[in-house]
């Protein structure tokens, strides 16, 4: 029997191991320019107006997917770009049925423009997790190849043995392809203090990826630690399933996300990867 507190560690990547606000600046600029070009050279003022609306009241806006807000608007530059673009497309009268494809295309074509800026101790943290006896996985919305390229740039020892599950689609609210009693028992939404809208929990695509992780590792949800920088996307569903979670914060992390993470018995909040590593390797 393992003497560790956890039998499996799941890591988000962008924002969790990277300085996403710094690395996302060129992405945001390219995304804006490409969107305005697709709209026939629409004025940059359209973007500036939408951006001002989002920044003035970030809790009111968010990443909308199939009519639901699935992530906070100012969580990171990638989601901020999507939240702003949604307003620009609405004002331009763009066909809502085609909007998701446009937004996904803009994200994918501009992701490579982002800088690569790692958090302090990112390399050491990954090296120690990889070298430990705890199965460790990366589960991310980003493309597998793109994240693997960033990992090769960081080049922690043993990186080739670190499984990466990309395109996890944590933002998709849907049923699981093979639901379990635990998934069936998930409520539709979670209400958190300090936020007027609900958080949608039944994210079947994300659950299906986690189910693969548990199958490969032999771990159970109760013996798993999941780490991420956005509570709503990365941690809300797992925490409700009884998974231990660690919210890796930035100065811009909303207070309601910090409090929501702490509100679960297995929920933790860390400002550094050192603190994450200490918890992940605890006995």
In the predicted model, the low-confidence regions spanning at least 5 consecutive residues are none
- Average pLDDT reading: 95
Give the structural class: alpha/beta
User: What is the correct CATH architecture of the largest domain?
Assistant: 3-Layer(aba) Sandwich
Helix content class:
40-55%
Main sheet characteristics = 6 strands, parallel
Q: What is the global morphology?
A: globular
Secondary structure: number of strands? 10
- Under CATH, the topology of the largest domain can be stated as Rossmann fold
CATH top level assignment of the largest domain: Alpha Beta
**Biggest sheet: strand arrangement:** 5-4-1-8-9-10
Number of domains: 2
Work out the strand percent. 5-15%
Which features does this protein show?
alpha/beta; 2 domains; six-stranded parallel beta sheet; two-stranded antiparallel sheet; globular
Task: Provide a descriptive summary of the structure in words.
There is one protein chain. By secondary structure, the protein is of the alpha/beta class. The protein has two domains: 8-18 and 118-280, HAD superfamily/HAD-like (Rossmann fold), CATH 3.40.50.1000; 22-111, no CATH class. The protein is 45% helix and 13% strand. The protein has twelve helices and ten strands. Strands 5-4-1-8-9-10 form a six-stranded parallel beta sheet, with helices on both faces. A two-stranded antiparallel ribbon has the order 2-3. Helix 2 packs across helix 5 (96-111), helix 3 packs across helix 4 (77-91) and helix 10 packs parallel to helix 11. The longest helix has 16 residues, at 96-111. The chain starts with 7 loop residues before the first strand and ends with a helix.
């Amino acid at each position: 029997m393992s003497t560790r507190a956890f039998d499996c560690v799941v890591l988000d990547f962008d924002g969790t191991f990277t300085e996403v606000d710094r690395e996302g600046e060129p992405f945001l600029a390219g995304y804006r320019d490409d969107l305005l070009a697709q709209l026939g050279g629409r004025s940059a003022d359209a973007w500036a107006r939408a951006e001002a609306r989002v920044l003035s009241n970030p809790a009111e806006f968010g990443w909308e997917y199939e009519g639901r807000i699935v992530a906070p608007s100012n969580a990171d530059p990638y989601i901020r770009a999507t939240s702003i673009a949604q307003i620009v497309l609405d004002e331009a009268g763009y066909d809502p049925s085609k909007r998701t494809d446009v937004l996904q295309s803009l994200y994918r074509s501009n992701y490579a423009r982002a800088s690569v800026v790692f958090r302090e101790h990112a390399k050491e943290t990954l090296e120690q997790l990889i070298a430990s006896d705890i199965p460790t996985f990366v589960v991310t919305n980003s493309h597998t190849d793109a994240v693997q390229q960033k990992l090769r740039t960081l080049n922690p020892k043993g990186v080739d043995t670190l499984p990466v599950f990309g395109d996890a689609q944590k933002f998709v609210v849907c049923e699981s392809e093979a639901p379990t009693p635990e998934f069936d028992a998930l409520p539709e939404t979670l209400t958190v203090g300090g936020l007027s809208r609900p958080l949608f929990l039944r994210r079947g695509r994300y659950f299906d990826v986690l189910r693969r992780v548990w199958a490969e590792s032999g771990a159970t949800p109760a013996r798993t630690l999941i780490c991420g920088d956005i509570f709503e996307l990365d941690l809300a569903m797992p925490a409700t399933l009884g998974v231990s979670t660690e919210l890796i914060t930035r100065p811009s992390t909303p207070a309601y996300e910090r409090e929501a993470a702490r509100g679960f018995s297995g929920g933790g909040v860390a400002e550094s990867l050192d603190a994450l590593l200490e918890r992940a390797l605890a006995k």
